[in-house]
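New to this. Comment on this protein:
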Amino acid sequence: MNWMRQFGSLKLNIKFTLVIILFMVIPIGVLASVLFYNMEQNVIDENVNYMQYTMERNKDALSTKIDSINMSTQLFLSDSALLDILKNTQEGKKYSAEEWYALKSGDITSLERLVNNNPLLYGVRVYATNDNIQEVMPVLYNSSRMKKQVWAKADDPSGWHFNYTDNLFSSYTMDQNRKIVSLVTQIDDRNYETIGTIEAAMTMENMFPSLYEVIENEWSCFADADGSYYFGDETQEKPELLEDVMHIVDQDDNIQTSYVKINGKNLVVSSFYVRELDGMLVCARDITQNVHGVYYQRNMFVFIMVVFLIVLAFFINAIVKHMLKKLYEILRGIRRVQGGDLDVVIEDCGNDEMGELGTQINKMLSRIKELMEDNLSREMLAKNSEIRALQNQINAHFIYNVLESIKMMAEIDEEYEISDAVTALGKLLRYSMKWVSGNVLVEQELDYIKNYMALINLRFDYEIFLSLNIPDIILKQEIPKMSLQPIVENAICHGIEQMAEDTNIYVKGIVEENDCVIEITDAGRGMTEEEVERLKLKIAGKIDSGGGSGNGIGLKNVQDRIHIAFGEKYGIEVASKIGCYTKVIVRIPMTHMEKEKQLEMENGR
């Protein structure tokens, strides 16, 4: 009852203002709560559906690949000729060269063709338990060769093995950066315990493509039964919430997708248990930024509404005061007269007090209209200024956003070739339009060339394959931007395009003392000795290279830019043979090695 008495003691204008504000706050608050709750749920549901769809695709693809490896293993196990060889060599039988040749051209060739016809497989190999066999690559190997593989060190190597390097041959012939996963199966005979071992392998990237996808705020990993985690990039640090995420996932064959909050992060986690591999495939998407975006909008709305209500309260109070102004003035005048102030003048009293009140109200309304028109004019000017400012913000990011939208449309329609082409074009534009002061890394230039080749191959009925053999230390070297791409473009336009058939462009990196050499070779039409000499003169600037097609101006520009960046000692050379190839050799200094030496010297001090 005390608050009712206090409310009753307030002035009439304050009572009126509080009642209006109260009746506005309740519906606005309810509407805002429902609106922002639905916005948050929409963000969550959208990401949950996306993760569910992604994991369904991953599960179907993984099942297909596991079946492919199992089927290949079973086909090798059912090959009686192969089993006879393993059994006979175990018993000490010797085969002649003619017998090994017949085996190679017959049964082994059929098995090799079977493996080659499956593009998903890295390879299927059979290892004997002894060295009495003649190795028939790439299918049949002896026991000594098998011992080079890491899984051979286990007492019982049978089963799945993940993320290991193929050590079958030396590091010079095998890609040591390529990790594989395999199913190892021992071949048992009733007369002997084990007569051989089958290794059916697939690259980790083929088996788990989601681990190698680079998506912002999203990561994937595969956890095996031993508690090891596998990521696409071995240098990648474990996500900080990995252990927390693994604690909430269940070993369920069905896909489990849920929205969770962990340590202040909003995550959508999707996982399923791969029973054949005895491991979990887990994918997590951090939607903290998206959810907080909704929270930010909600907080801004609340802030704006609070400010609006405060301003509105003062505004309503002012209006009520103006409505009762004459009455208050009369009351104050009466009190002042009662207090003895005889100088009080009540203007425009008139004969009728209501007429007097009406006059004051009209003046008040006239003033309010002037203020509102003035405020409206200022707001219009402010809005126009904001619109012009927003229009001026349109820049290259608009192009990237449009390309990203086209990519998403293509992926929704499962037009993945179009999606890949748009992605390559976006990266191409981003690299071309990005302003860079100084040089770029060789690996950045090669990434640009890869995207360029992906788009170039869309133009032709034939395909140009890009083969890269670049050591890691050369990838970290600095080179002027757009130095290698013009050479590749020149090779396509003047060496390959006229042939109109499938061919290759080889890019090879060689370290020579304190220099690094990058060789770009195309298997194109080549050039005569006269054409090569003339091109060298154009690159050296000894003859005019202006005008016409194939005038060498692109290579001369590359030469000039390398000279400016590194000096006359460095540049490009050209070698060619008509009908065979054209090779452009780029020589640059080992700047990356110099930085490492400087760091070593500083650490030594």
User: Anything to note?
Assistant: Residues 12-77 form the longest helix (66 residues). The two ends are 82 Å apart (CA to CA). The longest strand covers residues 265-274.
